[in-house]
Amino acid sequence: MVNGIINVYKEKGFTSFDVVAVMRRIFGQKKIGHTGTLDPDAQGVLPVCLGNATKVCDLLLDKDKEYIADLLLGVTSDTQDMTGTVLQERPVAVSEEQVRQTIDRFVGKQQQIPPMYSALKVNGRKLCDLAREGKTVERKPRDIEIFSIVIEEMDLPRIKIRVHCSKGTYIRTLCNDIGEALGCGGAMESLLRSRVSSFTLETAHTLAELEAHFDREWLISTDSVFLNYERLTAKNEYQKAIDNGNKLSQEMVDDCNFHIGTYYRIYREDGRFVGIYEWTKDQNLKPVKLFFES
């Protein structure tokens, strides 16, 4: 079984689930998962986890992301992008300076109401399924943070923006909200996810590339997600404790100045990654997530 993470470039026309299905065929294994849904018309970075790395899918979902989006002012649609039905068209009587000032106001911590055309569930049903039935339900606003918005190009009524944001941010909704704040409406024309945490466009590979030839150098090790934690090596004589998923005492690993509540990366002496452990108040390293290879 292949274990690790591959930075896939998702192209238009594929859902995130389509990508996983193709990857399962390429690698001949079922244990594969993606790290965040991209709409079929969106493109860009989609880290895909294989084997024991599927345990970090939820962790990568929590990471910050960067998008490049084309915003068309003067148009409002039911999906908040140009794939939907246009609901209203209004004149765009704003200056470039007004646009810049308005966009700047969207930087920072805030609450955002998820769009009806999304995969979020309310009472067990996806919002997008309800929207297709013509139903609109109340959605609770969610806490998000937009770290920066850079205007890459502006040729009104079109604006290209680069957005660095937290998990849970809907760029379609951001485009809609910017348009409403300007008084003319707005909808997203295109979306490219340019980064997920440390995974960038420059290192992403298309499904066609993977099908033609898989280079193991493209495989990113599972432990790369945890490089901010200190690395420790468990001594060989305590391998049975590791295999059993037991707590590890201080003498079982490298000498370290331990701190309660701190996470550590634990490896075997041969360099194989074991998992993440937490130093607890009872003076032990408690397993948090184990990544045994299968």
From TrEMBL:
<keyword id="KW-0413">Isomerase</keyword>
<comment type="similarity">
    <text>Belongs to the pseudouridine synthase TruB family. Type 1 subfamily.</text>
</comment>
<comment type="function">
    <text>Responsible for synthesis of pseudouridine from uracil-55 in the psi GC loop of transfer RNAs.</text>
</comment>
<protein>
    <recommendedName>
        <fullName>tRNA pseudouridine synthase B</fullName>
        <ecNumber>5.4.99.25</ecNumber>
    </recommendedName>
</protein>
<dbReference type="GO" id="GO:0160148">
    <property type="term" value="F:tRNA pseudouridine(55) synthase activity"/>
</dbReference>
<dbReference type="InterPro" id="IPR032819">
    <property type="entry name" value="TruB_C"/>
</dbReference>
<feature type="active site" description="Nucleophile">
    <location>
        <position position="39"/>
    </location>
</feature>
<dbReference type="Pfam" id="PF16198">
    <property type="entry name" value="TruB_C_2"/>
</dbReference>
<feature type="domain" description="Pseudouridine synthase II N-terminal">
    <location>
        <begin position="24"/>
        <end position="171"/>
    </location>
</feature>
<feature type="domain" description="tRNA pseudouridylate synthase B C-terminal">
    <location>
        <begin position="172"/>
        <end position="213"/>
    </location>
</feature>
<dbReference type="GO" id="GO:0031119">
    <property type="term" value="P:tRNA pseudouridine synthesis"/>
</dbReference>
<dbReference type="Pfam" id="PF01509">
    <property type="entry name" value="TruB_N"/>
</dbReference>
<dbReference type="InterPro" id="IPR020103">
    <property type="entry name" value="PsdUridine_synth_cat_dom_sf"/>
</dbReference>
<dbReference type="InterPro" id="IPR002501">
    <property type="entry name" value="PsdUridine_synth_N"/>
</dbReference>
<dbReference type="GO" id="GO:1990481">
    <property type="term" value="P:mRNA pseudouridine synthesis"/>
</dbReference>
<dbReference type="GO" id="GO:0003723">
    <property type="term" value="F:RNA binding"/>
</dbReference>
<dbReference type="InterPro" id="IPR014780">
    <property type="entry name" value="tRNA_psdUridine_synth_TruB"/>
</dbReference>
<keyword id="KW-0819">tRNA processing</keyword>
